[in-house]
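Before going further, learn to read the protein records used in this course. Taken together, the tokens spell out the fold as the letters spell out the chain. A record is reproduced here so that you can trace the correspondence yourselves:

***
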Amino acid sequence: MLESGSETVDPLTLFALANGAVQAVKKGCELYKEIKSAAGDVKDVLKDLDDQFHNKYKDRAPTIAEKNQFIQEKNRIIELNKKGGETTNIYTEIGQQLGAYFDNYYKCLAVFEEEERRSKTEVYHGEDSLGKRALQRVLLKKQLEHMSQELREIMVYQSPPELGALWTDVEAMMKTVGKEQSVAIGIEMRRHAEQTKIRARRRKRLQYRILCWTSSSIGVIYLVWLIWAVVQIRIDNNPELGRCLIPKGQWPYEHYNNLKWIDCEQIK
């Protein structure tokens, strides 16, 4: 587990964040390529689209829905062409999402490394078995590596050259940052684990004290009740001994009975 601020982030959360960044990069690359491809002579693109439509429906008349779909596609091409290759914002967004992916990717790896280190030196007390947690780490690692390979394939081989260069630059930068973060995250996780142990010890001490105080209180209450019950039985069986805790005839009785707020001779 990784503590971020006051919250604790687990590998599954980091994986979900990385996956979300991957999907955003994919969509950004698709839009980037569409704008680039439509930024040339739109007349040729629209003519080619018309030819495809008429060839497809040369044997029958297209339905209204099919005509509407064709018109929507032409309008989309025209709108893309109006942007005139304006891809700066998309390029920047792709770079930011790539950074987010690598950031969570290296955080995940750092968490995995720390968990593997602790599994060799500490006794695990969690709900899941060690085997289940190890399998989870392996599966998440495989999926993260697959994401990385898929992104590299899209940006380097299936996109304009500038996106391939962006991938290379961001990957190289994040490798350095990732190594630095790995050390920092390991230290943070060990600090968090130590704080968790300290809180657990404090909680146990508090629980022990509460148990002691509760037991003592119950014991005192029971003792008072027991004395009261014995005195009541004595009063019922031997009223001549008085109604006080100290029976008549004992040496402290007279002194005790002479107190202003005590009347051991009172008869109800």
User: Anything to note?
Assistant: The chain has one domain: 2-206. Helices lie at 11-38, 42-56, 64-82, 88-121, 130-157, 161-237, 253-257. Residues 31 and 90 are 8 Å apart (CA to CA).
